Structures are given as structure tokens and as C-alpha cells.
Amino acid sequence: MNTDLSIFQLILDASFVVQFVMFLLIAASLASWTFIFSKRKDLTRAIEITDEFEEEFWSGTALADLYRKLSAKDFKPEGIEKIFLAGYKEFSRMRQTGNVDPMVQVESAQRAMRIELSRELDRLDQHLPFLATVGSISPYIGLFGTVWGIMNSFMSLSKVKQATLAQVAPGIAEALIATAIGLFAAIPAVVAYNRFSTRLESLTGRYELFVEEFVVLLQRQVHMK
After folding, report:
1. Domain boundary assignment for the chain
2. What is the DSSP-derived secondary structure letter of residue 143?
3. How far is the C-alpha of 74 from the C-alpha of 29, rounded, in Å?
4. pTM of the prediction?
5. Which of 117, 136, 169, 219 to pair with 152, CA 20 to 30 A apart?
6. Nearest Cα to Cα of residue 178 among 26, 1, 9
7. How far is the CA of 160 from the CAs of 5, 57, 80, 174, in angstroms?
8. CA proximity to 109, closest of 138, 143, 84, 75
9. Cβ-count burial of 135 within 10 angstroms (0-12 exposed, 13-18 middle, 19+ buried)?
10. In sequence order, which residues have a C-beta less than 8 Å from that of residue 159 and are 6 or more positions away?
11. DSSP letter at 38?
12. What is the rounded distance in angstroms from the CA atom of residue 210 to the CA atom of residue 7?
């Protein structure tokens, strides 16, 4: 009987089902960490872009000048910049059409911004459901592997006349590793999901507030003419 109780050896000696559970959990953990680093980068960038844009937007820069800057060929707009471009482009298009009620112009611009806002939030929300799923089901998958491994250990004991701790310990230990891996996969995913959800909710609030503030500015423009 193999007395090597190292984690690596226990994994190698585990049954196929337990090994499959471990492999599944490790793969989920690796995917989670990939999405965590990617999402952290995306949200950090989106917040930085929003800070820079709002500072310039409220600095007194003319809307037309800001639009020309952001719509230049060598400029790649992101996040809130796309929302502004969508609204101002639609507003300008409606004004050039002629014989369009001023409030219709503003409402059309607002709809364009809402559409772009929804697209941006969908992009930022990508992979968050996966993290939530990993965080919620990984412990149960690990528990399944543990139960299966312990069940096999006790079934093997029924074939011997005298059971000892040395006989049952390796099987229970390898089974418990599945639960440990399940928790290892779940905890970072849950922490990251909660963290990113909070940041995304805050960013969503800023986007929506900007849309409302921009609509007010456009209303002032059409009433001044």
C-alpha cells in the first residue's frame, strides 16, 4: 500500500470521478483568475476614462469642439466618450434635418445615449455571471467529489477483514482535497464578483447621471435658439 500522503500523490491515486472533479474545479479556477485580471483592467480603464472625460466636459469646452476631438480618426473613444458621441451625433443630425420639434431632437439624442450606455454596460458585465456561477457551485462540485471519494473508501473497507486508520486515511484525504479545491475556486470568484459588481454599479450611476445632465444642456441649447 502506498504510504505517500503528499497532495500530488493523493491526486494521482484518486478515483477517476474524483480526478475529473478536481480537473473541472482547477479549470474553473484558472478561467476565473483570467477573467478577474481582465475585468479589473477593463473597469479600472473605464473609471479613468470617465474621470478624464468629466473633467474636460465640465471645464467649459464647447460641445462641438469636444465632439470633433473625440470623433477624430486617430482617436479611439471608450466608455462614456462613446455615450457622448452617440448623443451629440444624433442631436446634430436631427437639427440638420430641419422642421423637427426641439424636444424631439433632445429625446432622440437621449435614446441614442441610452442605447450606447446599454452596450457599454453589457461589455463591462461580460464574464461576471461566470464568476458568480463558479463562486456558487464550486463548493458543491467539490463536495460531490469528496462524498464520492469517501464512499469508495468505505466500500473498499468492506472487502478487508480488519479495517485500520492507515487503510482509510489516504482515501478520505484524497476525497477532502476535492472540497479544498472547490473552496479555492469559489472564494476568489465570490470576492471578485462582489467587488466588480460594486464598481460597475457605481460606474453605471455615473453614466446615467451624465446622460441626464447632458440632456439638460441640450434642452438649454434648443430653448436658447
Report:
1. 7-224
2. H
3. 39
4. 0.84
5. 136
6. 26
7. 21, 79, 69, 20
8. 84
9. buried
10. none
11. H
12. 54
Q: Tell me, what amino acid is at 215? A: V
Within 8 A by CB and 6+ apart from 15, the residues are 148, 149, 152
What residues contact residue 21 under an 8 Å CB cut-off, 6+ apart? 141, 142, 144, 145, 148, 178
- Amino acid identity, residue 144? F
Instruction: Identify the residue whose cell numbers are 458568480.
Output: 132
One-letter amino acid identity for 208? Answer: E
